[in-house]
Amino acid sequence: MYIADKDIDNGRPFDWGKASEAYAKYRDIYPPEFYERIAKSGLCIKGQYVLDLGTGTGVLPRNMHRFGAKWVGADISEEQIAKARILSKDTDIEYIVSPSESLELSDGSFDVITACQCFWYFDHEKLEPKLFRLLKRGGRILVLYMAFLPFEDEIAGESEKLVLKYNPNWSGKGETMRPIEIPPCYSKHFELVRHEEYKLKVHFTREGWNGRMKSCRGIGASLSENAVAAWEEEHMKMLAEKFPEEFDVLHYAATAELRAISDDFD
């Protein structure tokens, strides 16, 4: 399913379903610290019912499942959900194909709603009241994000240049460490109770880093099959010429935790 948004990639359409094969294989990259910090904050743990928006291939539910929460993952892409179900076959995680704005789930069901690597894709004027209804009173929204730092890491910088060569419209470029931006409409029913930003190193092989970049919106979800193949050939050549077989890439992670504070459903 193609998506087009004038504020993303200058309106160039993208389809996460096109990247689902690479995404399933190469995007399970968050280090243990990422998940442990979530659990230590008291969220997504035993006794809680959690809804993961924009779940993709179920990376967050699959890796947090060991902490004991019961999970539902939702995504607009049928292809991504198909991969999530295969990768989660030995768990009780439930998956739903649906836009987040039109989820049909019971009001007051969830202790926590998560959104990892996807918050900017939503129509927040529609989504905010729905999330408030789906949460139990005092429930939490946890927004999560991780990105490489192209101005601080040579490998990230070189790979980003190559993405922009093939897709100059890609707006995922130029990341620097910063808090997650929460749209103003959330102030109606929620308060920001915590935010955190921290740097971390993520280990890759050349193949793994190539796959991570191939599965990004600017390449695998946007370009034609021939253009993806040409980019991949050039990217692997660049990695082989300049960098060792294994390496760490500097990233930063960010979280924003919101708490439901209102009883006004209007």
What would you say this structure looks like, in words?
It is built from eight helices and seven strands; from the N terminus they run H-H-E-H-E-H-E-E-H-E-H-E-H-H-E. Helix 3 links the parallel strand 1 and strand 2. A seven-stranded mixed sheet has the order 3-2-1-4-5-7-6, sandwiched between helices. The longest helix is centred in the C-terminal third of the chain and has 18 residues. With 266 residues, the chain is an alpha/beta fold. The chain is globular and about 60 Å long.
Structural class determined from secondary elements: alpha/beta
Low-confidence stretches: none
Trace the largest sheet across and list its strands.
Answer: 3-2-1-4-5-7-6
Cα-to-Cα separation, first versus last residue: 32 Å
Determine the fraction of residues in helical runs and give it as a percent range: 25-40%
Mean model confidence by pLDDT: 95
Beta-strand share of residues: 25-35%
What is the overall number of helices?
8
Using DSSP, what is the number of strands? Answer: 7
Q: Main sheet, how many strands, which sense, barrel? A: 7 strands, mixed
Q: What shape does the CA trace take? A: globular
Order of helices and strands: HHEHEHEEHEHEHHE
Kindly provide the radius of gyration, computed on alpha-carbon positions and rounded to a whole number of angstroms.
18 Å
Question: What's the short story on this structure?
Answer:
This protein is an alpha/beta fold and 266 residues long. The chain is built from eight helices and seven strands; from the N terminus they run H-H-E-H-E-H-E-E-H-E-H-E-H-H-E. It is 31% helix and 25% strand.
